[in-house]
Known about the structure:
Elements: H1 9-15, E1 16-18, H2 29-35, E2 38-43, H3 51-54, E3 63-67, H4 77-98, E4 104-108, H5 112-122, E5 131-134, H6 139-153, E6 161-166, H7 169-172, H8 177-190, E7 198-200, H9 202-207, H10 223-236, E8 245-250, H11 267-286, H12 289-301, E9 307-309, H13 315-320, H14 326-337, E10 344-346, E11 353-355, H15 360-373, E12 375-376, H16 382-390
Parallel strand pairs: 2-3, 2-9, 3-4, 4-5, 5-6, 6-7, 7-8, 8-9
Antiparallel strand pairs: 1-12, 10-11
Helix pairs in contact: 5-6, 6-8, 8-10, 11-16, 14-15
Amino acid sequence: MSYFDYLCPEEKEALFFRLPAKTLLTTNRETLAYALGATLYMPASAPKILDKFFNSLLPGLISTIVCLEDAVSDQDVVQAEHNLIHQLTVWHKAKEKEATHPPFIFVRVRNLEQMKRILTVLGSSLTVLTGFVFPKFEATDGWRYFEELKRVNEFLPRPLYGMPILEDFGTIRSETRVAHLLKIKDVLDAYRDLTLNIRIGATDLCGHYGIRRSPEFTIYDIVVIKECIADIVNIFSRPEADYVISGPVWEYFFPGSRVLKSQLRQSPFQEQYGASGLQLRQKLVRSYIDGLIKEVMLDRVNGLIGKTVIHPKHITLVQALHVVTHEEYSDAADIVRHNRNGGVLRSAYNNKMNEVRPHARWAKKIMTMSEIYGVLKEDYDYIHIIHAKENL
């Protein structure tokens, strides 16, 4: 299992200066935190949900969260839980026989009691999971989730991880936010080896104020959410913390009416692929993908890695935007090479300065991502990957 396996070897060689890692299956926790890419949310109530993984019906899928919380109505919880347990058990048996390589699978539970029940019933089938997602995570009882992981991991060949979602009212309320987040950080610090990454529940955070963005705006245009994300990054991305924070979900996937102009320029598409490039751009615009592209770029520039998605067609695009460009890689490699000596370097592209010590943590992240997602050839960008996918 590796990124962009839906492309043939010749296509990969044509696009990449450095190929993505051949396998992510043995990835350690520090690297895995960066490797989830576009994490697809799927309701646990859906019949034969895991068949899509077996039959490779979701090109590019690397990680998924099977949801028992908000994605499932209250009256369907019991059925959804039984459905999930049955399918994971079937998957485990098939994996043992066929040595299949499923994506990283996480279960978003409703509460601690449900998590305990799933851990008990699944038994040896827990090995098909990568971890659990903890909704509306708070410091007061969030530690209990990690204690359960710690307990069950003693009997498993590889650990299960936890991913807390910050989405409760204490996280968004300005007068309590910093103190609230610092308490959560204390909990996560105590279970650092079990915390894979931190997820932001922007839909719930908006819901506290009766706000919903339209597809013509990014989550960063919602001021109350932007300020909240800023504090989350400030607290959890400090050098002494250095948690990986994932970008919030993009909700839109079907065309609708538009008031504002598209956020995608025509020239990059036309210059690279002519008429077919313009057709690709128009397809992205019609599906509101231009808003998603901008939001992922804003995620990246604000230090967020990976993103929750709710539609399969978002997977390859989000992951294409995580590939390291040749320019980023050149800068990062130079900074890493000169990290002991410090100083300022002229970039290989002769368009910027690379100040070694201030840019050192950025360079380390870029080098990690270059191993996972690969490095594009010079003058190539995400458009080339999307165009190759569209022409399969």
